């Protein structure tokens, strides 16, 4: 199977994956050895968690969900463990900013983390807060992460 996946990935053609790209674990997003890199994936009935978690974004491409008219029939069998919150939904929920606004008017976030030698997660979290619209991001952390102010301000 790995041979076939490598051949598909070497093609100069558009790749459409049906349900889940071959080699991608549908529940976790873990790539099982080699994985088909799709330009588009059409998943059936509902979104599988593994299509939007882990490193799946690198191989799923544009994701479409084909409900197939059975969504209600399965509603009582299994409850979703997550939901997809996409850009259109975010634009509906997040407040609109005026052209002239102050960082203090755009929300504040205080993050605690980054033990000595483990500053990666707090750096990523602080960048995510800044990029998602927090006007002021504060970090409470170890001495080793005091350089964070420059990381966040470079958004």
TrEMBL record:
<comment type="function">
    <text>Bifunctional enzyme that catalyzes the epimerization of the S- and R-forms of NAD(P)HX and the dehydration of the S-form of NAD(P)HX at the expense of ADP, which is converted to AMP. This allows the repair of both epimers of NAD(P)HX, a damaged form of NAD(P)H that is a result of enzymatic or heat-dependent hydration.</text>
</comment>
<comment type="similarity">
    <text>In the C-terminal section; belongs to the NnrD/CARKD family.</text>
</comment>
<dbReference type="Pfam" id="PF01256">
    <property type="entry name" value="Carb_kinase"/>
</dbReference>
<dbReference type="Pfam" id="PF03853">
    <property type="entry name" value="YjeF_N"/>
</dbReference>
<dbReference type="InterPro" id="IPR004443">
    <property type="entry name" value="YjeF_N_dom"/>
</dbReference>
<dbReference type="InterPro" id="IPR000631">
    <property type="entry name" value="CARKD"/>
</dbReference>
<comment type="similarity">
    <text>In the N-terminal section; belongs to the NnrE/AIBP family.</text>
</comment>
<dbReference type="GO" id="GO:0052855">
    <property type="term" value="F:ADP-dependent NAD(P)H-hydrate dehydratase activity"/>
</dbReference>
<feature type="domain" description="YjeF N-terminal">
    <location>
        <begin position="1"/>
        <end position="76"/>
    </location>
</feature>
<dbReference type="InterPro" id="IPR036652">
    <property type="entry name" value="YjeF_N_dom_sf"/>
</dbReference>
<dbReference type="InterPro" id="IPR029056">
    <property type="entry name" value="Ribokinase-like"/>
</dbReference>
<protein>
    <recommendedName>
        <fullName>Bifunctional NAD(P)H-hydrate repair enzyme Nnr</fullName>
        <ecNumber>4.2.1.136</ecNumber>
    </recommendedName>
</protein>
<feature type="domain" description="YjeF C-terminal">
    <location>
        <begin position="86"/>
        <end position="155"/>
    </location>
</feature>
């Amino acid at each position: 199977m790995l041979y076939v996946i490598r051949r598909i990935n070497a093609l100069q053609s558009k790749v459409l994956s049906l349900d889940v790209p071959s080699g991608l674990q549908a529940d976790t997003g873990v790539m099982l050895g080699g994985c088909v890199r799709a330009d588009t994936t059409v998943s059936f009935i509902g979104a599988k968690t593994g299509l939007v978690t882990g490193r799946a974004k690198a191989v799923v491409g544009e994701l479409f969900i084909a409900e197939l008219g059975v969504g209600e029939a399965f509603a009582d069998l299994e409850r979703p463990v997550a939901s997809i919150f996409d850009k259109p939904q975010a634009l509906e929920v997040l407040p609109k900013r005026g052209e002239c606004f102050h960082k203090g008017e755009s929300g504040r976030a205080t993050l605690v983390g980054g033990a000595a030698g483990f500053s990666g997660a707090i750096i990523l979290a602080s960048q995510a807060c800044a990029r998602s619209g927090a006007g002021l991001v504060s970090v409470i952390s170890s001495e080793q992460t005091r350089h964070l102010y420059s990381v966040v301000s470079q958004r």
